[in-house]
Amino acid sequence: MNASTDLMQAERRLTDFVRGFDASYAPEEALAVVRNMLLTTLGTAIAGASEDGCAAVLDFVRERDRSGGATVFIYGDSVSASGAALVNGVMCRALDFCDAMAPGLHIGSSLIPATLAAAELAGGCSGRDFLSALLIGAEVASRMNLAEADYDGADPTGVAGVFGATAAVARILGLDRQQTLHSLALAFNRAAGSFQSNIDGSLTVRLIQGWVAETGVMCAQLAQRGITGPGRFLSGVYGYAQQFARGLRRAGEFVDGLGEQWKVLGTVFKKYPSCGLTQGVTELALRARKELDIGPDNVGRIEVRLPPYAFRLVGHDFLIGENARVNAQFSAKYCVANALVRGASRLEHFVESSIRDPEVLAFTDRVDVISDETMQALHHTAVELHVDALGGEKIKLALDIAPGFPGNALPDQAHLMRFTDCLQYAAEPVSRQQADQLVQIVNTIRDQDDARVILSHMKVKRAGA
Questions:
Q1: C-alpha span between 84 and 109 (Å, rounded)
Q2: CA–CA separation, 192 vs 451, rounded Å?
Q3: Which segments constitute the MmgE/PrpD C-terminal domain (predicted)?
């Protein structure tokens, strides 16, 4: 085998997986992850549809698009497939209560809007094909995911997520081998995003999610029309393995065991509506409140110890900027204060009026967050909570793995509870009947005649409409 042929092996294997794999050959545990991802994303879209930025992006798409055919969640507008993917992706990420993967990749909130838009673009899609596309897209994104050091502050969703959304759309649209390869190659050229958006609390966090969904649709449509990308997008001298993985991984490593070993099993499902790196500290604070009766009246100072990567993202001082929700979601200080003052962590606690509660704000000043190099070896989400009680007692609580992460998975009931919390929070919720139908459809998605049935339950009837 010559070097030129070898260079293309990874791209060809990835392309063939996208085109040819059938979900019936996948293990049930991988399919369960995708079904949970689907339910989680639909719930967060319903709850997030009225959040900051969603209406503005929808207005932008209404003005831009002159063709319809794809459905905007909740609002019901008919816009272009790429436009629907953009708006719906923003909605799905608006509350940051969606699935995730260390070190910060959010797959479902782009994958599912893009795949549903593609199903409409294709004029329909069986539940079996839809499930296959979702699994393929989720697995591709998971395999393109990198380590913390490789990203070096880049947003994993913007970098790795585009490949998953594009793969799923290419599969739904039935692209041939060359078109599929070029759709992924085009997606490579759209890989971008920075965690500075998260640290600064900007709406770009949710917009990146929409861009990824939109990119998936656009790259597949462009490749379908003959637009080409770099064939060696994984293995080339400036390909993904070099440019993003910094030459520390072979191109073949991204496809080793494809269809047999499932990276999607590393998906995280959040127990609490904040950044994945605050899940552990929230859990410990609630445990201190509920089991040890620790609260504002009997505690002096609290010290939170985090691995360096987590500290850089959520360990900074808590300041309320232009988007209070994002500031709070990405603040270990706020999450601890909220849990200890209120004894819970729910969506309603991350609205601006709750965030500005004087009692909670005052308590954040009692929380110190420390970067601890020694914790890096434990787990990405390891955390310690040190409490100085007013009576002189010193209490230490610790978690090696936060709830919802592999190794500390959530029970099935927790996924339904998250979906219910989203419905209760939503400014414009779907009906109870619609919600029940969505749960049933998700559980039986493989047997559905047409996956577009989901969309009929993702619209809210408005008075006078």
A1: 13
A2: 30
A3: 272-439
Predicted model pTM: 0.91
Question: Over the stretch 187-203, which tens digit does the pLDDT of each residue have?
Answer: 999 999 999 998 888 99
Strand locations in 62-192 (E): 70-71, 78-79
CATH number of the domain located at residue range(s) 3-266 in this protein? 1.10.4100.10
The C-alpha atoms of residue 445 and residue 438 are separated, in whole angstroms, by: 10
Q: What percent of the chain has pLDDT over 90?
A: 91
Reading phi first (left if > 0) and then psi (alpha if -120 to 50, else beta), residue 193 is in left
Count the Cβ atoms, other than its own, within 10 Å of residue 6: 12
464, pLDDT greater than 90:
no
- Reference 224, options 189, 184, 264; nearest CA is 184
Residues 439 and 430: beta-carbon distance below 8 Å = no
CATH superfamily of 276-399: 2-methylcitrate dehydratase PrpD (3.30.1330.120)
Other CB atoms within a 10 A radius of the CB of residue 365 amount to 12
Distance, in Å, from the CA atom of 47 to the CA atom of 94, rounded to the nearest integer, reads 9
> Among residues 387, 360, 361, 371, which one has the least CA distance to residue 302?
387
Instruction: In the chain, list all ranges with CATH 1.10.4100.10.
Output: 3-266
As annotated, the residues of the chain forming the CATH 3.30.1330.120 domain(s) are: 276-399
Mention every residue, 6+ apart, whose C-beta is less than 8 A from residue 235.
7, 8, 9, 10, 11, 241, 251
Distance (Å, whole) CA 87 – CA 72: 7
Which parts of 92-215 are beta strand (E)? none
3-state secondary structure (DSSP) of residue 84: helix
